[in-house]
Predict the 3D structure of the following.
Amino acid sequence: MSKLPHIGTSIFTVMSQMANEHQAINLAQGFPNFPVDERLTAITAKLATENVHQYTPMAGHPGLLDKITRLTSASYQRNINSATDIVITAGATEAIFATIQALVNKNEDVIILDPSYDCYEAPILLSNANPIRVSLNDDYTPNWEAIETKINANTRMLIINNPHNPTGKTWSETDFIQLEKILALYPDVILLSDEVYEYITFEQKHISVNTRTALRDRSVIISSFGKSLHITGWKIGYAIAPEHLMREIKKVHQFLVFSVNSLSQAAISQYLDVVDFNAIANLYRRKRALFSELMAETPFDLLPCEGSYFQVASYASFSNQNDIDFTKELITRYGVATIPISTFYADNKDLKLVRFCFAKDDQTLEQAAKRLQKITL
């Protein structure tokens, strides 16, 4: 008997398989297709000949843990203890899974704000807990009235994602003030803040829970070197939490993977001495601008993108198809793969929106746009 009977093949796999079958340009899956920084590959090549191939300590490579404390201090002016407040994980997904498994108990409620990434619900269900899905407003700001209606004494955790996947929305100061007011009424609720796109923001930097003194002692903050350094296949993420929460997370982590890839951790530790996170943001800012310029020649209407490397676009002005059928037609007829936004909602809410990934080389973006420009109204 399945523990997850309603979960099948993910929409990301479905669209990528269709893209391969029809030789479509894949702007569906969220990973870059351009080269990794040569400084990182050089560091990795050198380290591969050294003694870095055995288990690291369970919580992570000591050098990398120390670098994360410095990065957190430089980015958010927060001082954390590398021995007690951090764990290096096999990607952000493992960090999220371990956190929920460690901290959520049977029959407790966990609030998820839709549209949401699909890795949140499964560990809640495997904890025999209750995922409570609450839709954001149509402009993807938090619907505080709806959240207040759902949060109660049985709520164990609230999950937020900022910058947001799939929409690219970032939270405002007003949003955090409202969140702090609500959570002040429920001191036992843990905040899980998914911030994997924290270094890919544009007009203004995102507000991290690391900077919120009213929240951080009850929060688990998830980060991803895979996203920040465009090395998604390395699967290196980390979580920051106060010691009383991190102690429990580490208990689960040690029995999931014990420790993660030693060579990758050692390489990232050295690379953090030379990488410029502002340059990474600038790289994606340029790609967003290029994609926006190219898409201006298509019938799509682009929504604001404040962070992440995803661009949401509306096709409501030229098609009445549901978004799943529409994305399949984009592949079969026009040769471009994307993701329908309805699949990020529990109720499959269809607003005639699709998500493009612009973390691609310029030639790929130009070729995709040229195909999309052939769409007839």
User: Anything to note?
Assistant: The chain has two domains: 11-30+277-372, 51-271. The chain has a mean pLDDT of 96.
